[in-house]
Amino acid sequence: QGIYFDRFISTVNFVDKWTNWYSKYLNDDRVYGSCGIHPHWSSAWKETSVDDIERCLQHPKIVAIGEIGLDLGESKNKSKLSLVNFILRNTCGIDQQRQVFKEQLKLAAKWSKPVVIHSRNAYKQTFEILKEVKEKFMKNIIQEIFDTSFDYVQK
């Protein structure tokens, strides 16, 4: 029978490939998208990244920026990494991730878009950055990975 859904947001973490990826899906009235550079691929940030993301944001069905954030996670057992975990493991440094995260938060403020946050083993650092920019930004936040207590978030 298939799966029924009313609305769906798909995230694309490779901004340079968003057109090809979304061309298949955005024609469906129920599907919307977000675009951004995932913390695992922060090293892909380049001079044209702001322009690339802004080009994505011009599409009327791109409703958010993300997944963006910080990822300090590592495999619990490095000797037994699965192929998927090996491919998806984070190889970007925290300073690079912070810079890319902040740049994308600036874009979210400029475009009044919510953000899809990816924060693994980095919730304190993530919330410090969000507190830094809260006066300039904050429409909505969608938390994709949540590894802390709700009490901490309320602070």
How does this structure look, described?
The structure is a single chain. The protein has 155 residues and is α/β, with parallel strands linked by helices. The protein has 6 helices and 5 strands; from the N terminus they run βαβαβααβαβα. It has helices at 18-23, 49-57, 83-88, 94-111, 123-133, 150-154, and strands at 8-12, 31-35, 62-71, 115-120, 141-145. Strands 1-2-3-4-5 form a 5-stranded parallel β-sheet. β2, α2 (49-57) and β3 form a beta-alpha-beta unit. The mean pLDDT is 76.
Which keywords apply here?
single chain, 155 residues, alpha/beta, five-stranded parallel sheet, 20% strand
Architecture blueprint of SSEs:
Elements: E1 8-12, H1 18-23, E2 31-35, H2 49-57, E3 62-71, H3 83-88, H4 94-111, E4 115-120, H5 123-133, E5 141-145, H6 150-154
Parallel strand pairs: 1-2, 2-3, 3-4, 4-5
Helix pairs in contact: 2-4
